[in-house]
Amino acid sequence: MEYLLKGICIGLVFGVPVGAIGALTIRRTITHGTFAGLASGIGCSTADLLYAFISAFGLTLCLDFMLKYQSIISLVGGGMIIIMGVSILLKKQEVVKETAKTSQIISFFASSFVIAITNPTTIITFILAFSIFNIGCITSTVQCLGLCLGIFLGTCIWWGLIVAMIRLFRKRITGKVVVRLNYILGSIIIMLGAGVAIRVLL
Questions:
Q1: In which compartments does the protein localize (predicted)?
Q2: Which three-class secondary structure state does DSSP give residue 70?
Q3: Which of 32, 92, 135, 190 could pair with 36 in a Cys bridge, judged by C-beta atoms 3.0 to 4.6 Å apart?
Q4: pLDDT reported for residue 65
Q5: What is the C-alpha to C-alpha distance for residues 91 and 97, in angstroms, rounded to an integer?
Q6: Beta strands in 33-155 (DSSP E)
Q7: Predicted confidence band at 139 (pLDDT cuts at 50, 70, 90)?
């Protein structure tokens, strides 16, 4: 229970929704509904869960691979983010109250997961978080599972709050507002992707 609670705290502190996935989640909640937004956020949380496992279990081979090739992985992720941002800019009008189909929800989950998993520096973030929360050597699998589950729950809480807040204003959003949001969020996502690529290249 102690490690579960610490994991939730880490997820709440270090899992604040920012960046491209945060923008995508907001937009998808507005245009496709609650489940679309949650699927986008949980896709990111699932990637965080995987990285938490790698950090907590000390999977050296996987950790070394991710850090060794983090530039290439991050560059691929930055390119995907840019492409996604451009596709949003090209979308003019969308139905605000459209409900996402099952295939779309799966697609939203997968795209968020892929974007999040192409950020290997997340491992470093968790290692730092473990140090701050005084998590030393984990002596059992149960402790590790509790910690990772807590991190997953903590990040999911954030995504749930974000989606709930967007739902409060969703009915007031018109088609014209969606078009403007496409330009704003699309531009933000492109800049974030370009930032990742530039950071890698420099």
A1: Cell membrane
A2: helix
A3: 32
A4: 66
A5: 16
A6: none
A7: low
